[in-house]
Amino acid sequence: MSFLEFMSVPAILFMVIVAPLWLIFHYKTRWKDQNTGGSGDEKTKKELWAAAQRLESRVANLEKLLDAEAPGWRETQR
Q1: Rounded to an integer, what is the distance from CA 45 to the centroid of its chain?
Q2: What's CA 37's distance to the chain center, in Å?
Q3: Are 73 and 66 in contact (CB under 8 A)?
Q4: How far apart are CA 45 and CA 31, in angstroms?
Q5: What is the pTM of this model?
Q6: Is residue 66 a contact partner of residue 60, using CB atoms and an 8 Å limit?
Q7: Given this model, what pLDDT does residue 37 score?
Q8: CA separation (Å) from 9 to 21, 36, 52, 56, 64?
Q9: Interval 25-53 mean pLDDT
Q10: Where are the membrane-spanning stretches (predicted)?
Q11: For the residues of the chain, what is the DSSP string, one character each?
Q12: Rounded CA gap, 17 and 21, in Å?
């Protein structure tokens, strides 16, 4: 029995049984990690949402001030 014949049986078993299971579990854990997102992502989203709301209220206040100070400012911007 030559070395190639001796190693062909474990190689075939590895390719048929171990490698597919390894790939399945590898990508399953990757998929779980991507779906969970983590608490840091959720915190960042909340902070960004709060900042966007603050900026939106600031812009609305500035528009009110400009409407009172210079009523035609919207037409001059176009």
Answers
A1: 11
A2: 7
A3: yes
A4: 21
A5: 0.47
A6: no
A7: 59
A8: 18, 40, 62, 67, 80
A9: 85
A10: 6-25
A11: --HHHHHHHHHHHIIIIIHHHHHHHHHHHHHHHHHH--HHHHHHHHHHHHHHHHHHHHHHHHHHHHHHH-TTHHHHT-
A12: 7
- Single-letter amino acid code for the residue at 45: K
Sort 66 into a burial class: Cβ within 10 Å, 0-12 / 13-18 / 19+: middle
Tell me, what amino acid is at 52?
A
Whole-angstrom distance, CA of residue 59 vs CA of residue 32: 40
Q: Supply 62's token pair.
A: 């500035």
